[in-house]
From TrEMBL:
Transmembrane residue ranges: 7-23, 43-68, 89-108, 128-145, 157-178, 190-211, 232-254, 274-293, 314-343, 349-370, 391-413, 419-440
Keyword Acyltransferase set for record: no
Keywords: Antiport, Cell membrane, Ion transport, Membrane, Transmembrane, Transmembrane helix, Transport
GO cellular component: plasma membrane
Location (main, coarse): membrane
GO BP annotations listed: monoatomic ion transport
Keyword Transmembrane tagged: yes
Cell compartment(s), UniProt: Cell inner membrane
Pfam families membership: MatE
Topology versus the membrane: Multi-pass membrane protein
The name this protein goes by in its record: Multidrug-efflux transporter
Length: 446
């Protein structure tokens, strides 16, 4: 394959996954917009509930993410029975995790009050999570189906199902939250019902596609689904648990940074939230490319084609670098315009937020490449089924170096919020260097 063919193949896989990632983000944005118009306490409750759901979801999503390289590798070896076995046990583990974690959502009110949250907001959050929390298992099943279908080259359906989910979330959420179209006004419970409906739609669409599509019927994914396959289950769990822990460590790094930013001031925290959301949108692009890299590395590794595997890796890195250059140019040239899109011109705090946020976007331009490269490296390592040591390297980088560096720069050295973001640069940069080094050392020679 030529370099252009490798780039084209990576983009063919990656672009629908990028679109799906961005659409998934818009689900949370639509909830915030709707609840923001309903009430402050309700918005705070759903933001808190969604955050709690997301953190626990990341940990369980590792099983679904593990299915991607396992299925791609088995397909590369021509072992179709193993494709079915791995995907099926990924579904088993996701259902089990969703059931086990649900009591945390049911009793979330007292837990949040004990953590210092406002009792009224905690009560509303519990109302939301008792309904939305039932969607944990379906949400994780969706992750497995997405990984399974992506590994088999069927990424378009992943994009379209996510876009349909955004439309359904608004169509169900808006009338149920506000009581329109003759429906009862349910507030946060309406938002939770919409969330549950979204998960049900996605499971139905992707599961039906996986079972009925003519190209996929031969895998017989659901044949004797009730039968356990302990060796495959152990392999998915062994690969997936470190993936979930790695994702949780990175999410925790940004959550801890937000907490410390709140110690500095309201304007700084608002600027942090906006700048981070902007940076997260560009990260979704790199994440889609990383998933494509996982699939292609795993497939070529399974085929025993190290030369093609290395070429595919270089193509993924090149695409991510090109995206990073474009994003850096955007962040540095018009930061005020970008941040202004999130703010009301009549808000007296807007000029201060734009000024402070512009500095944060300049630092986001610094960690753009670091964040991109660590994401791509993790994706490629997963293609080699290497997740345990990368988990350790990531945790050491994020929590052993990045977070302490941010604290020292932000407070003892007096750089404030900009120092906290410099800590992100340090932590993500170290992760990128160590993870990339590990991949190229472990990748078989051509």
């Amino acid at each position: 394959m030529t370099r252009a063919e490798h780039i084209r193949a990576t983009l063919t896989l990656g672009l629908p996954l990028i679109g799906s990632n961005l659409a998934q983000m818009s689900l949370h944005v639509s909830d915030s917009v709707m609840l923001g118009r309903y009430g402050v306490e309700e918005l705070a409750a759903v933001v808190l509930g969604t955050s709690m759901f997301f953190v626990t979801f990341i940990l369980g999503a590792g099983f679904g993410q593990a299915v991607m390289p396992m299925v791609a590798s088995a397909l590369g070896r021509g072992d179709e029975a193993q494709v079915r076995r791995d995907a099926r046990m990924g579904l088993w583990l996701s259902i089990g995790y969703g059931i086990c974690i649900y009591p945390l959502f049911w009793f979330s009110g007292p837990i949040l009050v004990a953590a210092g949250q406002n009792p009224a907001v905690a009560a509303l959050t519990q109302e939301f999570l008792r309904i939305a929390g039932a969607g944990m298992a379906p949400a994780l099943l969706v992750m497995v189906f997405k990984s399974y279908l992506a590994a088999l080259g069927k990424t378009q359906v992943v994009l379209w199902s996510t876009l349909a989910a955004v439309v359904l979330n608004i169509a169900v959420g808006w009338p149920l939250i506000f009581g329109h179209l003759g429906l009862p006004e349910l507030g946060v419970r309406g938002a939770a019902i919409a969330s549950l409906a979204v998960q049900a739609l996605n499971v139905g669409v992707l599961g039906g596609y996986a079972a009925r599509h003519p190209d996929l019927r031969r895998f017989e994914l659901f044949r004797r689904f009730w039968r356990p396959d302990w060796p495959a289950l152990w392999q998915v769990a062994r690969l997936g648990a470190p993936i979930g822990a790695t994702g949780l460590a990175e999410a925790g790094l940004f959550q801890a940074t937000a907490l410390m930013m709140g110690w500095i001031g309201t304007v700084e925290l608002a600027s942090h939230g906006i700048a981070l959301e902007i940076a997260a949108m560009s990260y979704m692009v790199h994440l889609g490319v990383a998933s494509a890299a996982t699939i292609r590395v795993a497939r070529f590794h399974g085929q025993g084609a190290p030369g093609l595997m290395r070429q595919a890796s270089v193509a993924a890195i090149g695409i991510s670098v090109a995206v990073g250059i474009a994003v850096v140019a955007l962040f540095l040239s018009v930061p005020g315009v970008i941040i202004g899109l999130f703010l009301s011109a009549g808000n007296p705090a807007t000029p201060a937020i734009i000024a402070y946020g512009s500095g944060l976007l300049a630092l986001a331009a610094l960690f753009q490449f670091a964040d991109a490269m660590q994401a791509i490296a993790l994706g490629m390592l997963r293609g080699l089924k290497d997740t345990q040591v990368p988990m350790v390297l990531a945790i050491v980088s994020y929590w052993g170096v990045g977070l302490p560096a941010g604290y020292i720069l932000g407070f003892p050295l007096g750089f404030g919020g900009h120092g906290l973001w410099l800590g992100l640069v340090v932590g993500l940069g170290l992760a990128a260097v160590m993870l990339m080094t590990r991949f190229w050392r472990r990748a078989p020679a051509a």
